[in-house]
## 1
Amino acid sequence: MSKKNISTMAILLIPIGIAINVVGGQIALVLKLPIFIDVIGTILVGALCGPFFGGITGLATNLILGITAPTWIPYAIVNIAIGVVAGLCAKKGWFSTIKGAIITSVLIWLITQITANPVTVLVYGGITGSGSSFITSFLLATGQGLWSSVISTALITETVDKFVSVFIVFAILKSIPKRTIAKFPLGEDYLKA
Amino acid sequence: MKKGFITKLYPLTKAMFVGCMLIIGLVSDWRVGYLVVLPLCLLFAIIDGVAKPFIIKVFGALVVFVVFIFAFKIFLDKSASPIVFQYAFITIRQQGILDALNQTSILTILASAIILFFETTDVEEFMISLQQINMSHMISYVILSTLQMIPEMFKKSKIIMQAQQARGIETEGNLWLRTKAFFPSLGPLIISSIADLEERAITLEVRGFSADVKKTSYKEINKTPYDRTIFWSLIAATAAYIGWRIFTWLF
Amino acid sequence: MAILELRDVSFKYQLGKETVLENINLSIEKGEFVACIGRNGAGKTTLCSIMRGLIPNFQNGTMTGDVFLNGQNMKELSLGEIAQKVGFVFQNPFIQVSGIKKTVFEEIAYGLENLGVPRDEMIERTNAIITQLKIEYLRDKHPMQLSGGQSQRVALASVLVMDPEILIIDEPTSQLDPQGTEEVFETIHILKQRHKTIILVEHKIDLVSEYADRVILIDQKHILLDGPTSEILTDISLLDHGVSLPQVALLALRVEEETGKKLDRIPSVIEDAVIEFSKLV
């Protein structure tokens, strides 16, 4: 019945999601917060429109950032994964309760680690150009990974970052007027809550 | 503003260049990235008169990565290769440098090719060229809309932050205070943007956004006489190069 | 044949508890300028959405009845066809922009891009509209840097360039200052002179009396009054339905009261008032 409406609303939400990602990151910088908070938009779109649109928002964010900072493009896979996971969690209704939000935060943190570390290893610190063993590089780099997280607070701040982002989205979802939220693909789930 | 040769080329030709450079880079070592692609891109930038922004942007994009990766590789170099430099406890061996160069080569290619692309290509024209090969206009819309929205949202966020400051919400001070300042700055921005969405959707609909026809465009982009040649030469050269690499790897 | 016809249309929003409109029957001929009046919340905007096909395609709810555009049932038209045939301009002046164009010219042409109009024709039609609506001075400006009145004029142009058969305008001046309002009605005046079929929702009753040929009143889920402007806008019962009368009508009624003399008819526009009052003197 209102299929067209739903996809147009989702398509219109993506630019907002991307802009929130970019501007959120900039605000965090201005406020000198030690975290990145640059995935709020991705999580929000995933929560309102599902894994497909969440993933697209993540991808598009990195591509658009890639116009001025192409060296970050390989991390697109992390952003995509976050969007997909957020969407899947939303489908399970986890953005409507505090307990669900906590589970979502953990899952998003997990998927970030799973996707980000290999990228860090492979693109930014693992493989040599002339083709030495994948496995060796990976093991070596995982050793590096553990090592660097021991000496820096990167791991801690990255965790806080993801929890805060999910809860910000949780709060936003509660603040959107009902008649507006109904128009998004997953909107009806939030009306029931 | 006079348009340089590279700028006048059709966007998809230039995109093919970026693609080919990346593919070549993935199967080559540091020499291709540092000695071929980077200088080549710099040359093109000079030809089109965008050398200065090119250099600044590439430097900015690479400097952090390169420094860190070099530091890592050098520090972890346990090989017995010849020493290049020694001072106090710092030992720099050849292997470390080679590893670092190889590691950063693909990043260098990524940065040089993409920054060159966007210095010589208008995003709108790029989108039109993609639409001409049947990419959905919705993708084009998302990208162009985002590019207009980011500066707008940033301006609004500054206004909101100033208003918050005037109301006494601290944006300086300890970490907790600053974290508290974050949500009131971002929250209203997000919610008002979402509230607007429905009417924007209606506006687009009224302008025929959902019409299922091939879209036309007001902006005209033309192929130069060289585009065809360059496009196919790039494909041929890349294929040949990969072929050669496979050959030398097998035998 | 009517250009737009609603037969027995009723609608209830998905989130609403009651129907908003019931058994609406309306027929509009080509070239008519119809004003739609009624108190806030009466259902005027819902009616606009139905006429524009936004209901049922874009709004969640239950609609019964049919809408016919030039004899064709709207349900059988594609979204693109509806977009081309029915133009729609609404209240918020600053939101009716594509968000991707940098000049007013391109903004106006956007609708034609979406309809796949060839470039030469696109340029010709856009230039023509700009000239007709007298907005040459806005041509190179950025669409996001216009005043309210200017934005609404561009919104009207952007929709008219698509050459719709009918134009629905929903309270275009409610968010504008007096100057903006004047600018918009200048444009509406040009449209009237070109005999465009227009449905205008407006609260500014004096402007309605000046421009509309026909007025319909919506209240209590139905069309309660439907007739020529001079008839409807002099009907005192309007006041019971949350709508005011034009100033000259109110004046005439007061004069009748004060002098005890009856006028031949209550005027709704100044020209008629002059005639009637002259008879008294």
## 2
Amino acid sequence: MSLSVALSHHFPGFTLEVNFEAPPGLTALFGKSGSGKTSVINAVAGILHPDQGRITADKTTLLDTAQAINLPPHRRRLGYVFQDARLFPHLNVRQNLRYGRWFAARNQGANFDDIVDMLGLSALLSRSPATLSGGEKSRVAIGRALLSNPALLLMDEPFAALDDARKAELLPYIETLRDHTKIPILYVSHALPEVARLATTLVVLDQGRCLRAGPAADLLADPSLAPSLGLRDAGAVLTATVTAQDPDGLTQLHTLGGPIWLPKIAATPGTRLRIRIAAQDVILSRSRPEGLSALNILHGIVSEIRQGPDGALIQIAIGADHLLARITSRSATALNLAPGDPIFAIVKSVAAAQTDIGTRQEGVV
Amino acid sequence: MPDWFTPDEWRAVALSLRVSVWATLLSLPLGIYVAHVLARRDFWGKQILNGLVHLPLILPPVVTGYLLLLAFGRKGFIGQYLDQWFGLVLAFKWTGAVLAAAVMAFPLMVRAIRLAFEAVDPKLEQAAGTLGASPLWVFLTVTLPLIMPGIIAGAVLAFAKAMGEFGATITFVSNIPGQTQTLPSAIYTFLQVPGGDPQAFRLVLVSIAVAMLALILSEFLSRAVARRIAGT
């Protein structure tokens, strides 16, 4: 199932005009605050009625202003996880989770016990929402949305109110959802590391307009897009497979550009991982460097060079994957790089932080 | 117990209780509706509706009573049809006392319920909608449970106000012992009679007790609604 969104809406002093397709998997709506992300997701939910637009989920038309079709939110079959959990204060956790069940078709959708297990909610069922921590509230809100048997899951920065440690605890749940349910997820975020970790499709919004939309791995490795994503956070995503757990506490992974080692990752050999390497944590060298403390040296081909006022962005093809490196203009001139040149990328091992590593199952997209 | 009140006094207290219960129960659905409209909707003439609802609070009660007589009297522009079509006569009957009490108590009831509506976060109702609940179900399963203490508080206040209603009642339905002589009318009557003071005083105590209990209960319930919405 896939979602197709085209809409335009005029706010005082701000015009929203977006058009994108969200295939199965997790589609991240990324942009700065005020770029219109929440307005887009609210239009999909039916909370915002755009001036003009057409939104379809597979064969169901949720909105078509040309044909005067506008399904009310309760008939759109979606689960919406709000930024501020929005649990019902007069109901306990169990009743909150079951709320959407009253209205969903009987005997359909996710099993109550499965969702409770997956989100680790069994100890909380008889508690009142007011007694829950922020992370617990988020988990209940996700469970409540899933149990309403949605055809589409909307998440508006569900973890924005949480600290990094809580967030790191919850991101695996989203990965599980992405990989083990067939429900497409529309996920609003302004945190690039989170997007890089979760997204299969990326939609970049800027001042109410859709800057780019496409497969997340392609867009993240695109040097022309990096300035809009934020140079400090820019970085590509690579696929890697765990090959060994070394006795000195490092985990060895295989990539198409050679082996890399990361601080211990709890995963069995053969597990496919998605690793993110920030562009500014990559050093380039024309010849294979010797006598370096850095362990991770990948071999690739320069595929694109983009000079900008803040230095140069070099895209390196590593098999089918891409790596992004950010170096100074002076270094770029000194190295005299050109597309097609073989290159060695030295990745400081700190670059691939554990929280930025996400699992990704085969055949999800 | 029987020695505390004379039969006349009992009749007045019993009639006041009956009038107040009916006035409260009958006006409650409309009170909830009007409170919802005032709290949640924007429309042309909202301030006029708001003014009309609160008018009985400001007008001299005798004016309200006289207006009720004009409208609902046997020859009144509404009253004549009620008589013709339903055989319902309000003027100088206890049913008229119910109407007078309901009109006078309405502003207090609406005010309490409106505040409860305004304290409910519309985002919760939005969330219920995305979970598949139609607007009616959202109202029944989210809004109503959250404002229930506010509704009860409004009803209690309205009941207490109805128990004490005097001016509009005596103007509209007069002061007929056993029929339209409510508690305040009875106190007024006793005070007009030489030597009636002790009887009046006992009823005064009843009035004070009812009013005090209602205020305490209403205050307690208002806090409950605040707690419920904060979710503690």
## 3
Amino acid sequence: MDITIYLQLMIGGILLGGIYALVAFGLSLIYGVVRILNFSHGTLVAIGGILASLAYTDLGLPPYVSGIALVLAFGLFGRLFFQFLLEPLSARTPKEAEIGVVLVTVGALLMMSDIAAFLAGPTPKNIPVRFDPIELGDLILSSTQVYALAGIILLTVALHFFLRYSWFGRAIRAVSQDAFGATISAIPGKTLHGNTFAFGCGLVAIAGVLYATMFPVDPYMGFSLTVKAFTIIILGGIGNLTGSLLAGILLGVVESLAAFLIGSEWAPGISIMLLLIILVVRPQGIFGGKPA
Amino acid sequence: MKLSRVALLGMAAAAIASISAGLASSASAAPRTDKCAGPITFGTTISATGRNSTLADRWVKMTEVFETEFNKDGGIFIKECNKSLPIKIISYDDQSTPATAVTLYERLATGDNVDFFLGPDWSAVSFAVSQVVERHKIPTVMSNASAANIWTRGLKYIFGVQSTAEGWSNNYFEMLKGLSPGPKTIFFVAQDNLLTKDVVAHFSKKAEAQGIKVIGSEVFSPELKDFTALALKLRSAKPDLIYIASYDAPALPLIQQMRQMKVKANGVHEIMTTGKLIRTLGKDAEGLSGELSWLPGTKGDYSELIERVLKASDVDVMDYLWTINRLNAYLVMMQAVERAGTLDRDKVRDVLDKGTFKSPVGPITFHEGGISDVPAFTTQVQDGKAVIVAPPSVAQKPFIYPSPSWQ
């Protein structure tokens, strides 16, 4: 078999994995700090992509402009969502709160999908910005994906420094490592939880915009993205952004190779198989135990 | 620990859903006692939301308009009552999901006590619903259900106005026979779905029988967005023809990435080349061939009523490719009830079993198993617009082969 085919598959997998990782960042932060498994996370990616697509095609707004607007809008949405739907559950018993979180986030997933389909239509949409592909002999690389991956790497580095050196970042890490200790150190736990949820939702908006520049997005694709994001945070370690990036790339490469070697029908199931294998063999994740 | 609790919660939800469906199915679907008190009720589900809603969401409005327009002409004359009764179509959203459709048909049978069923659409949904139909013995005219296994189980109460997967691309393959030089090789790509896999299974054999060598066959999940691997397979296989059996939405990223990866062929066929797909693909759609059931302007029985309904409900058949089958299901059922002259379900079933019914696409007769054989036209995108290229009797332009756009 031609080596360039495998090279093409590897590069395609890396580009795909980058976007998976970005989807997982927000979920990883939210779970690491607030301990909420947000099942509607992937649907927010889809809605971000749909809104950015409509902004581009109907209003002529370039993706970076709609991206900035969506980060703010999703951040505000996340804060309100947490304040009014999730935070009240903390008054319940831990078990009730846990079930309540699942019901609220799964309910949000279903409602947001249908509302988006009703308002924007169920047809897949993308942001049709096209740059000439990069051709290296038989290798054809999507310039859009290459730029997106470069952006994701920069964002990962920026987030890493932000979480390491800013007060907010240090507070997030403190709460994720020892919530009780953080509270007696005067870190306002409830406010921080709400702000982290908002921050995670803002990150999702960036993922949605970048995703829509590469692939079509539709209102019903959210759940499978959430599953991939779960897989990545298990592989990469909860709250570990570098681990998430590497895990995303690993997932992307494995999916690409599996689609070629086993068949395309198996590619979406790979994340589940990987998740199960890691949970059995190395429950702390491949890159786990080293939060940002 | 937390993950396992979540999993348990999911299992509990599934168990509750199963119990609910079981309870619903234990009720019986009683036929009406007062046979001449109108209206005659028909129950159906439409995929207004969910994955297949791109092909069906406007059918909700269309069904309401059909009911209004049909009743304007007096409804259905019932001989047994010696009067015409208006029709009432009760429709719910099945969310493109078989399990939801099953629950809703149970509700239509036992809660709404409808007289007859119409629809649903899509093979996977129809297959699941066929069990409900048989259990309650309610005659049903299904609209878009082509998978062979629906029609080969000896079920008595289901009838389908669309041909099986075996008739899907007949005109296309007939047209290929006449090409000189014709295609020598073909690569099949199917969405993981009952219908599309059936279509590929049948036409793979047909291609071989016509002397076109099948050099590849690949199935993909509708969830898949990154088609790099598949595009690479197609690029290295270098087939003369690429035949894609997929709904329009999952096919979109596939075709976009085939173009991006510079996949070449003499022709590319996608069985559901809708107006939406063509618009979204833009110039990438040029040369793509596909299938279409009917076009407005083609004269036939009830064509005026149908065009009125389509106009009032703002349905473009290029965007909603299988609309005519939906409407044909309505027309056939109305004719069957009128011919039976009664609302007795078994008598209406017998009429459906033996009769030939008028429709805009020509006469519809049900063969063994309950399926008909309504043909589809072959289309090709030429200068950005889909035109009919086969069969010759209705072709608007000649088929362009090899397609310069794909070479």
